[in-house]
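Lecture notes, unit on protein representations.

Consider one protein chain, 429 amino acids long.
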Amino acid sequence: MLERVGVDMAGAAKGEWSAKNPYYTTITENYVLNGEGSKKETRHVVFALGDSGLDYKVGDALGVVPENPPHIVDELIEIQGWDRDSIVNTHNGERTLYEALKKDFEVHMASKKFVQSLAQKVVSSGMKITVKMVSRTRGNNQWNSSEAELLPPELKPSAPSDDPSDKVDHLITDEKAMEDYLWTRDYIDIMREFDAKYSPEEFFELAGRLKPRLYSIASSHDAHPGLVELTVGIVRFSYHGRDRGGLATQFMADEIGNSDQKVGVFMSPTKSFVLPEDKDTDIIMVGPGTGIAPFRAFMEQRVFDGGKGKNWLFFGDQSSKTEFYYKDTIESWLDSGDLFRFTTAWSRDQAEKIYVQHRLKEHGAEVWEWFENGAYFYICGDKTYMAKDVHRALIEIAIEHGGMSEADATHFIEKTMMKEQKRYLRDVY
């Protein structure tokens, strides 16, 4: 029996599944892709589409409706002294308080609105509070923190206060202090720190609604009828003596696993990240880490379609021994000739760090030749660093091998390729 949240099953027609009306199904496969000794946890996750009528094309994303970890919900209820079995009303209808906290609201990360509400809850007590701020940065799917004394000069700790109300005032009036404070704290941390009590209804008004997470689909529906597959990096980190992590990734890895528990999904179609209509067109794909997901789907579709277009994949991660995702499949594509070129960038397998942008420039002459012959260029992955570095590499390739000026090269990549010809397509986040 399929489960629904806040939706009348009788009124749910096949093919009309959405974020507000997800299809509840099971995970059929869920396994780690990393080799032994890896510091990462990357999983291949397969969902059954059953009788949903859901269809997708390569380049689309799958929306996953997560739930909050049971231990966080239990701890939140205990701290506030709430009755877990009491009946409450939320935007998803009537349910128990426990169900509401688990399925309806984002309780793993605190909101600004909640901190601001402390001004009405916290009174001056004279208690001593020591404020220690940390910076939080993300690299290679891991969270790293710096103690206050190691912070760069531009990131100053907020001023200590002898009074909790003063600290609240400081957080409310200093946007940077608020941002830094929320980086490493959830509702449980803040409630403990300030001993603030709320009714369930008050908390619902302050907490954000739980939102689905979107993941690039890693399969072709033609190659895997009735299934949809993902490549998911599981996010885990610790702060203030408590283990934390990505809401949806840990939900899939830890709570769902390979169980029969239902999880809500829906399709999020793409309008731009698509294969060339002409199957004989060459394509270049750059997808380090979990960015390989849509290109696994692209390759499966290209093999299924049987076009004459050549396929060139750039892939990389920390080490070939521990992060060579889909190695057997990639090697089979190379053996069959379906994958024309495969270029790797393993950042930690040698003294100097090598990334995909470096490999692109090394093969700049051939990349430029492909561009001149009408090839499409695709990139998927980190928006903040990798995508910017790859973008710059393309401009430098146009300068060096296309004989263009800086201005002409920039125009060619950003206007001609991206906007006019739509041959440079990105799925970055």
